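Sample 3 of the quickstart, ligand FE2/S2 (inorganic) cluster:
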Amino acid sequence: MSTAAVIVVAVGVVLVLAAVSFFTLARRSDVRGAGALSSETLSRDKASRKDSLEFEATATSGAVRTAQAAEAEGTAARGSGTALANVDEVPALVPWVAPDPEAVGVSRRQFFNRATVTLMGAGLGAFAAAAFVGFLWPSSTGGFGGSVPVGKLGVIKDGIKQGGGFFYAPEARAWITAYPAEALPVAKTIYPDNVLNAMEQGIVVLSQKCPHLGCRIPECATSQWFECQCHGSQYNRVGEKKAGPAPRGMDHFPATFAASGDVTIDTGTVVPGAAIGVNTTGQEAEGPHCTGGGDH
Ligand code: FES
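Result:
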């Protein structure tokens, strides 16, 4: 999936989740209003109010009766000179009633609202993390940083001839040049197998990135070398350093060769170039240089 497609999908998902989040929060504030109570809650409230009114009425009449009785007893006591018998009586205990769970705890509605918001937040976070990692993670196939098919070996060799000794594979950001068979015995004492693999097929695959400070290295048609325009590093046609400030020869990419002739470059693996002084082909400049070269 292209970067633009990933961004479009990410924006779409974020907008949808934001809309759902907005709807949930709006509903949550609505249901807090008095008109949104459930019928179950309303009937419970009604029953509770009825009980309360009945209790108040009973208490009031009881209190009136108790006051009248106390007054009569007081009068009788004052008349007879005896003390009131029930002045220190302990009042009747009120039975404990379990509190309404919706009043003291998290209601079911609150629980679902909070769970929705929490899950949505977690989903958004996970999506953002996945998108971030996917965006940064190099593609394993089909693009620079992974395996890049660059065509048939025969076509590439023809391209080298037509290009005056140099073939450029832009999708792999690589140069491909011919490697002479007579240089192979020396190369086998220097290069690792994943570089020799291509040399044995008659080509060398070089990263376009200068090992000095990373400039793109162009070919020089007159000298038949690679000559970096930035600080003047020079390399022969197979990428071995000849002059300039670069610390080594041009870096290599491993290549694989299918029986069908298809060549694939592994741009996810960079093999450091040969050390300064390596010159397996003995190629000297074949004409004027494109840069001044340098010994920085
Ligand atoms: S970047 Fe190529 S010589 Fe400095």
